[in-house]
Amino acid sequence: MNERIGKPFTIRFTGARTCMSCGKRVKKFYGQGLCYPCLMNAPEASECIVRPELCRAHLGEGRDPAWEKEHHVTEHFVYLSQTGGIKVGVTRATQIPVRWIDQGAVLAVLIARTPYRQLAGAIEVDLKKTLADKTDWRKMLQQVAPDPEALIVARNAAVMAVAPELKEYMLTAEEPQTLSYPMRETLPKITSVSFEKLPEISGTLLGIKGQYLLWKDGRVFNVRNHTGYHVEVE
């Protein structure tokens, strides 16, 4: 996509949708790229995806124990990232640095390593008492200068603040990692667009950050929110 930045770019919805779990064609999505039965039953839509502290995979439980074991009874990390501000998050080891890029982080540091998802979630919940766990997407889409000193201060405070029974999983020597994005300039005004209201988006592509494509006229398109939509590009 980088070579398309600064040039005319069009993305067009064909009208077709495919459930990303079962692969069936659907007329409507429930949740992100899922049909209704999969929203209710698929492990990808279980509550612990959003709230890892509720994960029961390490107990051999879940919507699909085999899927849970493969994805959640595996090494997870707690991290701090700088997007618009500093936030705490959880991700599988295999999703580093994908998760940070997905969120549009300009800086990130690992602060805890755990053998399964629920423990990482427990640490995150403990740290959410003083740290944010959400990204302000409007602030994230602006040009943000990395501040490694502030991230290290936040990491040190988190290590000190976490509950005693969780301290053994904390990391204190990881170095912050810097991430950059292909953006030509900062958008003065942002307007979010979706295929539900605008089936074709066309114009000069200004840049890419996190989950978003950005056009020069200020329109921004969340690609992740359109998982499962069939599109044409030109």
Short description:
This protein is of the alpha+beta class and 234 residues long. The protein has helices spanning 36-41, 47-50, 65-72, 98-103, 117-127, 137-140, 148-161; strands at 8-18, 25-26, 76-82, 86-92, 107-114, 177-178, 191-193, 200-209, 212-215, 219-222, 229-233.
Describe this structure in words.
The chain is of the alpha+beta class. It has two domains: 99 residues, no CATH class; 99 residues, no CATH class. The protein has seven helices and eleven strands. The strands form two sheets. Strands 1, 2, 7, 8, 9, 10 and 11 form a seven-stranded mixed beta sheet that branches. Strands 4-3-5-6 form a four-stranded antiparallel beta sheet. The chain is flat. The mean pLDDT is 94.
Backbone structural class: alpha+beta
Which runs of at least 5 residues are low in confidence (pLDDT < 50)?
Answer: none
Order of helices and strands: EEHHHEEHEHHHEEEEEE
- Count of helical regions: 7
Domain count:
2
Biggest pleated sheet: 7 strands, mixed
The total beta strand count reads 11
Helix content: 10-25%
C-alpha Rg (nearest Å) = 19 Å
Distance between the termini: 12 Å
Q: Which descriptor suits the 3D outline?
A: flat
Provide mean pLDDT, rounded: 94
Which strand-content bin applies to the residues?
25-35%
Give the topology, please.
Elements: E1 8-18, E2 25-26, H1 36-41, H2 47-50, H3 65-72, E3 76-82, E4 86-92, H4 98-103, E5 107-114, H5 117-127, H6 137-140, H7 148-161, E6 177-178, E7 191-193, E8 200-209, E9 212-215, E10 219-222, E11 229-233
Parallel strand pairs: 7-10
Antiparallel strand pairs: 1-2, 1-8, 1-11, 3-4, 3-5, 5-6, 8-9, 9-10
